[in-house]
Amino acid sequence: MKLSLEVKTAILVILGIIFFIFGFSYLKGNNILDSNNTYYTEFDYNALSKSSSVTIKGNNIGKVTDIVYDIETGKTRVAFSVDNNIKFSKNSIIRLYKPGFMDANALAIISAKDNDIANNGDFIKSEVETNLVDKLTGNFSNISTELDSTLKSADTLLVSLNSLVTDNSQNGIKNTLAELNSTLKSYKNLSYSINNVVKKNDANIATILDNFKQASNDLTVLSSELKNANLTKTVASLEATLDNVNGLLANVQNGEGSLGKLMSDDKLYANLEGAALQMEQLLEDMKLNPKRYVHFSLFGKKAKQYDADGNEIKK
């Protein structure tokens, strides 16, 4: 079947009208294909907007679909849709409340405990959350107080900064900026000087770095040698030697051996001291009277004899 141009045009116009109605309703928050139930309530003033949330026990189950001001009663009539699977009593209360400080107002269904189920299109009584307006006013008051405190702090800071930069001298801040500029120039010159010193001593610095590198390598080799050395055996030998020395000293202290007897026997010490004294006296006498001990005669003459006191014995 071949459609004429007029029929095709009519179909397109009808489809366009349908899409326009559907789109316009969707933008207004109404879904034509939506099967939700619609209920009504009213308030003394409007604190809602279309698409405001409708909740039950904190769960989002619908939204506000229409808000109309009734001139005759002076009240605001609100229509809201709820999922048709949600059943609640028509004696319930629709409460206007604010979920959070930054959230928009919403409606909450305070369900009544009876079996008188609300039907599509029923009117439900409403109430406003206690102190909702006071809470809003208090929040804004707190914000205002905090903002005022912040502004006062900022003003104090600006006054302090102003007192810092205030200079009653003739040139004021100009002198400060000039001094700062002079300081920066001095640092710049110092930087150039350091750079020149580094350039002039580049070879020396390179030599120092090479020497440091060589020393580091030597230390690495020494550390490796010490690591590979049998230090345990050396320490054990040293400990054995020290034990022997300790044993020897213990024997000396106990009077064992010649050295021990010499150190612990007083008589032996006295005898040695007496012998040394006699030896000293003998040497002194030999020095003073050598003829007593050395007799020499070129022609065989008999040597003279002397007594203990050094007197010649005459025969």
List keywords for this structure.
elongated; two-stranded antiparallel sheet; alpha+beta; 315 residues
Please outline the helices and strands.
Layout: H1 5-27, E1 37-43, E2 53-56, E3 59-70, E4 75-82, E5 93-97, E6 106-110, E7 125-128, H2 132-165, H3 173-200, H4 202-228, H5 231-253, H6 257-264, H7 266-288, E8 305-306, E9 312-313
Parallel strand pairs: 2-6, 5-7
Antiparallel strand pairs: 1-4, 2-3, 3-4, 5-6, 8-9
**Spans of at least 5 consecutive residues with low confidence:** none
Mean pLDDT equals 78
> Helix- and strand-based class?
alpha+beta
**What would the principal axes of the Cα set say about the shape?**
elongated
Descriptive overview:
There is one protein chain. The chain has helices at residues 5-27, 132-165, 173-200, 202-228, 231-253, 257-264, 266-288, and strands at 37-43, 53-56, 59-70, 75-82, 93-97, 106-110, 125-128, 305-306, 312-313. Among the domains are: 1-33; 34-136, no CATH class. It is built from 7 helices and 9 strands. The chain is an alpha+beta fold and 315 residues long. Strand 5 (93-97) and strand 6 form a beta hairpin.
Short characterization:
With 315 residues, the protein is an alpha+beta fold. The protein is built from seven helices and nine strands, in the order αβββββββααααααββ.
